[in-house]
Every structure is written in C-alpha cells, then in structure tokens.
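Q: Got one fold?
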Amino acid sequence: MTTEKSIPKATAKRLSLYYRIFKRFNTDNVEKASSKQIADAMGIDSATVRRDFSYFGELGRRGFGYDVKKLMNFFADILNDHSTTNVLLVGCGNIGRALLHYRFHDRNKMQIAMAFDTDDNEIVGHQTSDGIPIYGISSLKEHAQEAGIETAILTVPSTKAQEVADILVEAGIHGILSFSPVHLNVPKDVIVQYVDLTSELQTLLYFMSQSNQ
C-alpha cells in the first residue's frame, strides 16, 4: 500500500491524526470504519478523507469501509511508530520545561532523551524528575552523535535560534521542531517544522471574531 505520488503538505499533516483515530477505533474494538466515521472523528469532511487516502493506493473498498487494524498498522509504518525515536531538546525555559515533562512515549514511540541549555545554567549537570539528563550546549554535538539522535526540539529565544540551529546542523540533526518565531536558514536536507503559538492564538481569535459577526 505505497505510492510514488507526491503527498500534499496538508495531507501529510493529517497522517498522525489518522493514526490516532485508528488507534482509538482499535481500542474501542471497532473493526471497520467508513469515511464518514473517520471524518466525523477528525472534524473534516468525507471527501477529504477519501482524497487523502487516494494518495496511498487501495486502502479500502467502496461500500465495505476501512479495516481498522490494517490501517492502524499502515499509518504506524508510515510514521515509523514501531520503534522508539529519541529526540533532544534545546532550551530549558518555560516551554522547554513543559515539554520535558510531557510524556510523549505514553501516546507514541518517541521520547526526549536529553536536553541542553547554556553551559552556565545551574540546571546543567542535573536530571529532570523523569531522569532526562541536561547538558551544556557546548557538548551537544558529542552527545547527539554518540546517541545517534537526528531530531531536535528548539525552544530558545528568537535571537539565539539561528545560532543554535547551526550547532544542531553541525551535530548531524536532520529534523527540527522550532518554537522560535523566526525563519531558520538550514541546508536542504534538514527539515524544519515551526510551531508559532502567538500566530495560532491570533488565528483562533480572528475566526472567533468572524463567527460573531
């Protein structure tokens, strides 16, 4: 069930949501699910579900629904959720600390294996309550390469984001989830996903104002 088609970004962003829905269906002992059931669970329309699934070939038969366990395993394969993925975090401020205490591994097979901050930060050399070690930024390359980590979460001030991104690239990081509201200049083989909480909140407020008109 693979395809050579180019998958739109909007579809790619929904893959983890589909996976979550099929895991929920499986937990609820649902064996077959229609596109309408999937759409209702995600808050989208059935046509979008069918269009998304069409990029992956024949995932189900019209009128018979989708095999829940089969699709759950399919999306697990796509998202590489059969083995644990270790990531590192840079920036142990408010957002960083919140993420360090978020139990990613309870929901998916990913976990923050180590964290970094400025060498002179008093938390360096200690561990979180979950046992995650916190190192100085000067040792990032050494620790990341030793652990074979290729993914990082960036939660540093915008003025330091590019500098830290350069360090991550030099350390062999190929994927960055950035909470810093600035564009990062990285090589083409490094993927960056941006999370801008202020922008998301402003968008929410805009839609709220439109619905009240």
User: Anything to note?
Assistant: The longest helix spans residues 9-27. The CA atoms of residues 202 and 208 lie 10 Å apart. The mean pLDDT is 89. The chain has two domains: 9-78, 85-198.
